[in-house]
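Annex B. Sample input.
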Amino acid sequence: MVGPAPRSVSGRRALLGWLPSLGVPDLWYAAYGSNLLRSRFALYVNGGRPAAGQRHHPGARDRRRPVSGPSLVVPGSMMFAGRSLRWRGGTSVLVPHAPDRALVRLWGLSVSQLADVQAQECGLEPGDVELDLDRLRSRGAQIVANRRYGRTVVLGEHRGRPIATFVPLRRLEPTTPGPEYLALVRGGLVECGLSVEDADRYLAARPGATGR
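Annex B, continued. Sample output.
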């Protein structure tokens, strides 16, 4: 059952204000890792480079401003797994049916925006991924690429629109995240209304954190 987070905040509108608002979204993207952070997620829509020397994100074909949704607690476990050369350690993945709870932040997107965000998460180009909204609604999942975040799953609904996110195709072993990546996720949790102390407690309890 999807429930409200302790508190949600909308953040600064200016960071996502380059074009008119999307209006009514096709669906909601549930961010659970670094995309909890507004400025980080903006790169997947608007394009840009996180920091000097890092990979440039081309952005989505549809550059309209996403709808800022609430933060929610959903069934499943967020863990750190795999190994990213860019982030020097594990990155966030969601295990939807694990006996735990995970905090997510909703971004209201068009179907093409969600597909382009997923393409970039998979190391592909915008336009390389095609999502079928009717199939997602009826089947609850769609495999779009043989990549780490290549499976789209529906977690529930919000305001009559499906809540979707990206998960791995197969089970991954927990891996300790690098400090820079961990700081991004912590910053996103604080934007969602957690105190720094509560954010640190939440992260410390994730599989893979500090080697657990």
